């Protein structure tokens, strides 16, 4: 019988057989969880896609996990933008979207490439296998997020610890550690706001501080803190997951790798295929605002619904009979890896750019690289599937 698990660590290794069974046998799947009680799971592409766009029916305002108390860690703080619904969400998104467009992101490319090359220089100087997560895939997104927020270099390592604790909030009883980390992050963000008031920079926090000082609507210091939280937790581990999954796929599929080596112009378009199959954010929750009839089932009003992006992105109903097979030349009209509609990821252009550069430089510097997925260790947390460590060799 089809079943759904809140995964973590080793159970992330192969969730795909279960996903296939859910899509086929129980596309609107009820869960009676021992900790979180009743929630439902949608796993087919069309259902997840429609729910992601229908913010009136599937609300984000009660948090993105099945926990009824998901908003507790924001007590006294403004909710992050990802946990807002339109029209409030629309107004706030407009303030921060412009600096994150592909045109505004493109000038950062030389800095990202220099950062990646410096990390790969260290890899080249190391004898034997190294952990590519620690060497490159983890520091890269932290560097990019910190760049956009204007975080001083000496503070950037602290972000990784906060991120790791917060994304593990609903695994192994880690909620207390996550709440402590969130409080530390909120405190730091408050300090950063005060710094940018006195010493403006070319960064998003400065932009928002100036908007608040100009009295542009709803921007408050508390909301800026919530935005920093969103950037730190949403921009770090997801890109790490994408890069780790991509390295694994290119190790397994040498034929697909060879296509990219023969024609490097294919790499940037292929990022969508790597995003589709890796789906770093495997699932997030919404809350129904009315009863929903779907596949002969009635999902009640006021109930949490998990949108299973990792399953939807492999649905043969959308992507054809080879949906679970890597094809770097696959034409893709739409995927769910970076959300869709109102909640399409603000950092999508930055995520695609840094992934493309990392893949380009890896293939250029180490065309025969290999990762040992069997020895890779998955991170905890029930929502983002990513390697915590992944052995890497410059020759396979």
H-E order: HEEHEHHHEHHHHHHHHHEEEEHHHEEEE
Strands ordered across the widest β-sheet: 1-2-8-5-3
The level of helicity is 40-55%
Task: Give the number of helices.
Answer: 17
Whole-Å distance between the termini?
A: 39 Å
Which secondary structure elements does this structure contain, and how are they paired or packed?
Elements lengths: L15 H10 L2 E6 L3 E6 L2 H9 L4 E2 L28 H10 L4 H4 L3 H16 L5 E2 H6 L1 H11 L7 H11 L7 H24 L5 H10 L7 H15 L1 H16 L1 H9 L4 H12 L5 E5 L3 E3 L2 E3 L4 E4 L1 H4 L3 H4 L28 H18 L4 E2 L5 E2 L8 E3 L1 E3 L3
Parallel strand pairs: 2-8
Antiparallel strand pairs: 1-2, 3-5, 4-12, 5-8, 6-7, 9-12, 10-11
List keywords for this structure.
396 residues; alpha+beta; 5-stranded mixed sheet; 3-stranded antiparallel sheet; 17 helices; 12 strands; 48% helix; 10% strand
What do these coordinates show?
The longest helix is centred in the middle third of the chain and has 24 residues, at 175-198. Strand 6 (292-294) and strand 7 (297-299) form a beta hairpin. With 396 residues, the protein is an alpha+beta fold. The mean pLDDT is 86. It is built from 17 helices and twelve strands. Strands 1-2-8-5-3 form a five-stranded mixed sheet, covered by helices on one side.
């Amino acid at each position: 019988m089809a079943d759904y698990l809140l995964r973590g660590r080793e159970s992330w290794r192969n969730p795909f057989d279960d996903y296939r069974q859910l899509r086929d046998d129980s596309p609107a799947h009820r869960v009676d969880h021992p900790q979180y009680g009743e929630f439902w799971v949608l796993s087919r592409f069309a259902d997840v896609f429609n729910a992601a766009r229908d913010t009136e029916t599937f609300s984000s305002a009660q948090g993105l996990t099945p926990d009824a108390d998901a908003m507790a860690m924001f007590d006294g703080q403004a909710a992050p933008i990802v946990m807002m619904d339109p029209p409030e969400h629309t107004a706030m998104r407009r303030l921060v979207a412009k600096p994150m467009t592909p045109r505004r992101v493109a000038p950062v490319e030389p800095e990202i490439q220099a950062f990646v090359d410096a990390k790969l220089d260290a890899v080249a100087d190391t004898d034997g296998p190294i952990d590519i997560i620690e060497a490159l895939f983890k520091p890269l997104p932290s560097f990019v997020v910190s760049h956009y927020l204007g975080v001083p270099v000496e503070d950037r390592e602290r972000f990784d610890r906060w991120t790791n604790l917060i994304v593990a909030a609903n695994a192994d009883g880690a909620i207390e550690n996550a709440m402590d980390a969130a409080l530390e992050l909120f405190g730091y963000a408050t300090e950063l706001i005060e710094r940018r008031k006195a010493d403006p920079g070319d960064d998003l926090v400065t932009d928002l501080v100036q908007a608040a000082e100009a009295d542009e609507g709803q921007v408050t210091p508390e909301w800026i803190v919530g935005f920093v939280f969103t950037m730190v937790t949403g921009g770090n581990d997801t890109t790490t997951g994408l890069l780790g999954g991509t390295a694994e796929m290119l190790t397994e599929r040498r034929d697909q790798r060879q296509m990219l080596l023969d024609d490097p112009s294919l790499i940037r378009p292929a990022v969508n295929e790597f995003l589709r199959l890796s789906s770093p954010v495997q699932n997030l929750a919404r809350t129904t605002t009315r009863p929903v009839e779907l596949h002969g089932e009635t999902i009640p009003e006021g109930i949490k619904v998990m949108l299973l992006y990792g399953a939807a992105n492999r649905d043969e109903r959308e992507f054809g009979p080879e949906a679970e097979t890597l094809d770097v030349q696959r034409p893709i009209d739409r995927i769910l890896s970076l959300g869709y509609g109102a909640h399409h990821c603000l950092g999508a252009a930055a995520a695609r750019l840094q992934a493309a550069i990392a893949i380009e430089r890896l293939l250029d510097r180490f065309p025969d690289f290999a990762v040992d997925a069997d020895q890779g260790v998955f991170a905890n947390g029930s929502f983002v599937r990513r390697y915590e460590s992944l052995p890497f060799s410059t020759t396979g």
